[in-house]
């Protein structure tokens, strides 16, 4: 008969839980080398012999007292989700710190199995870990695993299935010593007045949590009938002192066990530290960061161009075929709508993919956490913790995962500000607009112009953060405290996989929402019947002309206006709709010609347009994630209005300032 | 035995934590990361205000403000 059990993968951040999850379930999960990659629990399943195992991958947590949103998710699942077995994934290279969580998990009374992960790295370093002794002293099964190579998965599942049958389970709690234990006993006694509570949570665990001043445990007591008895015990002691005693005791236990099970488990100065001395040093830190980012954008531009030429050649061929199709309306649908619209976006996929690949390398190597450290002082001076810098970098790829990554930020207003400024960080979807316009109107140094736009996005984000701190969200950022993961050499395979995970979204978008957008714009440009395609008399022309006066001060013509209106669906649509409206499908490469020939467009207007696209309202997907993460329509609306106002102002300054400086007349 | 704040320890020096003068929340957080009284700490980088320290085989970045609250004793002192 088959059995069904649920197990939870818990553990400190960045110990390889998601990699192990992938190895167990075969379900791919985004991983990276910085704490806080997983911010939501993910589940998958596997069948082991005759047991169906539901595996839940949890965000990393240092302890069962939760501080940030992602840790709350993990803690709640372990405590209230009642998994049959908790697998604590332990980083074999830093046992001491990892075992602290073990001492807390073992108080829960849930069957526990330790997956001694990254064991190969510990062994390479010369550590010898005695699994049997470790199991014996901790009274918890320990299994050696190497998630990245899929080693030890069978053994781990064997242990999990075995443990799932061992209920009711005793709590292997550690003793807290002569001063603390009597108080714990009193608290347990008091808790027994509320059987409903003690049947849901192990009383000893609740007592320990209460002594440590855990807010969540206090909340549970507030509504309990045991409340008064517990308050009278707690009011009689100095909680801070007890808390310190208990933390000491936990480490004493760990310190006693550790030398028995592990030889040479002590950190020496490693290559990681030597690299850190350089990349985080006072004078070199920020320059190194800037050079890396600038190099990434230059590479994005140069490496992509041969690929772009290839895609362009294919499109040119297809356009030639399409032009011969009968009847004529079908030819323009395919030529102008499909190839002109979607094709204009596809051409920039090489840029997006190369940028994502380079970002994946930054993530996988562990440098991202250093960038946050290097930027901490700058971030602090604008009123944000250094941790907020990571979502900003992730936002270069896409704002949606970036805004989700803010869950690791503990303080609510720190987090809200980080979310609100993220849409200013230029994502991959905006890159096509920049590549096209910068390449056309600034042919000598397009890479530098694009880099400048990215910098502008960061500057606007920073200025906005400072503004929010000074006005609507006052306060001081939480002090910086973050783990620096050891550097790992990213393999080409994993970085390519990351690139694909995030980049395939852009392909799906091109075949979905952008295709639909291009077709709608084509339909608007081709109707009413008999109208000249894409002319001012078409519906698209009418819409554009109706709204265009609003954008006239910025120098945008009606075609650009229409593209901006549709661009809120997804920012690539700006290019797709320009391609459709300028009717360039028959001859790939003609969008460039058509744009250059348009008398309304000069380099100043092009710059104003790029800046507007950079800053104006976030795309639909970003809006949705802002709504979800802030839980408020008010902040979502604020983000939209603020972004558009800033974009308008910035584009206006460029358009008018440019006209003043160079005497150009903006029609 | 109070010693000096961790923030004043130069890079490359190994010290022992003697006291963590932080509020209950921060104390728990530091404890769960391995920074607790009697733990051994090595300062890895300390030339930009915030510092990177090695504790129990892990590297943490912490702000100078927080490093001021962690009192340490030099080894052998």
Automatic annotation (TrEMBL), chain B:
InterPro entries named in the record: Fe-transptr_FeoA-like (IPR007167), FeoA-like (IPR053184), FeoA_core_dom (IPR038157), Transcriptional_repressor_C (IPR008988)
Gene Ontology MF term list: transition metal ion binding
Domain Ferrous iron transporter FeoA-like positions: 4-74
Pfam families per record: FeoA
Keywords carried by this UniProt record: Iron
UniProt protein name: Ferrous iron transport protein a
Organism (species): hydrocarbon metagenome
Lineage, top ranks: unclassified sequences, metagenomes, ecological metagenomes
């Amino acid at each position: 008969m088959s059995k069904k059990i649920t197990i939870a993968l818990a553990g400190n951040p960045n110990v390889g839980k998601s990699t192990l999850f992938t190895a167990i379930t075969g379900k791919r999960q985004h991983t990276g080398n910085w704490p806080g990659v997983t911010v939501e629990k993910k589940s998958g399943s596997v069948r082991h012999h005759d047991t169906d195992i539901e595996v839940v991958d949890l965000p990393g947590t240092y302890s069962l007292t939760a501080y940030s949103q992602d840790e709350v998710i993990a803690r709640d699942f372990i405590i209230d989700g009642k998994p049959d077995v908790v697998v604590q994934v332990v980083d074999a290279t830093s046992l001491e710190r990892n075992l602290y969580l073990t001492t807390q998990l073992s108080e829960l009374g849930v069957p526990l199995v330790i997956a001694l992960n990254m064991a190969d790295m510990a062994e390479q370093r010369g550590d010898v870990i005695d699994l049997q002794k470790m199991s014996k002293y901790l009274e918890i099964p320990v299994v050696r695993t190497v998630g990245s190579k899929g080693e030890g998965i069978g053994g781990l599942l064997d242990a999990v299935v075995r443990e799932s049958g061992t209920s009711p389970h005793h709590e292997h709690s550690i003793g807290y010593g002569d001063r603390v234990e009597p108080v714990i006993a009193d608290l347990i006694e008091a808790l027994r007045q509320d059987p409903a509570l003690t049947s849901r949570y192990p009383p000893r665990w609740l007592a320990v949590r209460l002594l440590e001043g855990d807010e969540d445990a206090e909340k549970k007591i507030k509504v309990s009938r045991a409340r008064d008895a517990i308050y009278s015990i707690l009011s009689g002691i100095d909680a801070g002192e007890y808390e310190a005693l208990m933390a000491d005791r936990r480490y004493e236990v760990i310190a006693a066990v550790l030398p028995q099970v592990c030889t040479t488990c002590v950190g020496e100065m490693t290559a990681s530290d030597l690299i850190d001395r350089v990349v985080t040093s006072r004078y070199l830190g920020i320059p190194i960061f800037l050079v890396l980012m600038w190099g990434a954008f230059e590479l994005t531009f140069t490496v992509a161009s041969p690929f772009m030429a290839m895609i362009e050649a294919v499109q040119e061929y297809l356009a030639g075929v399409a032009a011969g199709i009968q009847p004529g309306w079908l030819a323009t649908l395919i030529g102008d709508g499909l190839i002109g619209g979607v094709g204009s976006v596809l051409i920039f996929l090489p840029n997006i993919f190369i940028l994502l690949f380079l970002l994946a390398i930054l993530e996988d190597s562990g440098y991202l956490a250093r960038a946050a450290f290097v930027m901490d002082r700058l971030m602090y001076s604008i009123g944000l913790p250094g941790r907020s810098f990571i979502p900003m970098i992730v936002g270069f790829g896409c704002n949606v995962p970036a805004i989700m990554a803010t869950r690791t930020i503990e303080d609510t207003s720190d987090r809200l500000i980080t979310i609100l400024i993220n849409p200013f960080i230029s994502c991959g979807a905006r890159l096509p607009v920049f590549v096209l316009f910068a390449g056309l109107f600034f042919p000598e140094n397009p890479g530098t112009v694009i880099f400048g736009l990215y910098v502008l996005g960061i500057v606007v984000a920073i200025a906005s953060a400072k503004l929010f701190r000074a006005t609507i969200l006052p306060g001081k950022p939480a002090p910086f405290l973050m783990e620096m993961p050891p550097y790992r050499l990213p393999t080409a395979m994993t970085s390519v996989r990351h690139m694909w995970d995030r980049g395939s979204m852009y392909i799906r978008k091109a075949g979905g929402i952008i295709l639909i957008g291009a077709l709608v714009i084509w339909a608007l440009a081709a109707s009413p019947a008999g109208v000249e395609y894409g002319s001012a008399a078409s519906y698209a022309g009418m819409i554009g002309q109706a709204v265009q006066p609003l954008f006239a001060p910025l120098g945008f013509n009606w075609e650009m206006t229409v593209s901006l209106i549709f661009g809120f669906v997804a920012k690539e649509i700006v290019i797709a709709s320009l391609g459709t409206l300028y009717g360039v499908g028959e001859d790939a490469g003609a969008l460039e010609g058509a744009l250059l020939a348009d008398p309304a467009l000069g380099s100043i207007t092009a710059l104003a347009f790029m800046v507007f696209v950079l800053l104006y309202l976030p795309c639909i997907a970003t809006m949705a994630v802002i709504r979800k993460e802030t839980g408020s329509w008010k902040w979502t609306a604020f983000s939209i209005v603020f972004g558009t106002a800033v974009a308008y102002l910035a584009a206006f300054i460029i358009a008018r300032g440019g006209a003043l400086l160079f005497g150009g007349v903006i029609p | 035995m109070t010693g000096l704040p961790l923030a004043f320890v130069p890079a490359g020096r190994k010290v022992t934590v003697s006291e963590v003068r932080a509020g209950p929340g921060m104390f728990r957080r530091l404890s769960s990361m391995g920074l607790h009284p009697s733990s051994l700490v090595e300062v890895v980088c300390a030339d930009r205000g915030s510092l990177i320290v090695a504790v129990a085989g892990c590297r943490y970045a912490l702000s100078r403000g927080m490093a001021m609250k962690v009192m340490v004793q030099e080894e052998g002192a």
